[in-house]
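Entry for zinc ion complex. Fields follow.
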Amino acid sequence: MKELENKLMEKRINPTAMRLVVLDYLLKQTNAVSLTDMELSLEKTDRVTLYRSVKTFEEHGLVHRIDDGTGITKFALCQPACTVDGHHDLHVHFYCTNCGETHCLPKTQIPEVKLPGGYERQETSLLVKGLCAECKN
Ligand SMILES: [Zn+2]
Ligand SMILES: [Zn+2]
């Protein structure tokens, strides 16, 4: 539990019992999860409290949200480069059309996108759809 606490404090998040439970769950996931996934897996949580924890994590650079085109927002843990000052892990996300799981591809960076003059970037995301390694076999 000490290790979990440290992970939160590193991102300047106050380690409440609820946040520790959510972090523990997120660390065990191999794919991005929705709020509903979390709600169903974690006992004694309500959606509002859960959402607040995730929101705090997001604001402190601990998790990022992923729009995988399914209409359901998913969340995954960030790379250590993300801090309270901003998210710096511009990696590609992969949506498997067979199992429906969404994965972070932290080693696959989004190439720099050049915008025409007058346009200002707020965020960039890149989603690749296809078959994940497991479904491909
Ligand atoms: Zn798959
Ligand atoms: Zn990701």
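NOTE: The first strand starts at residue 33 and ends at 34.
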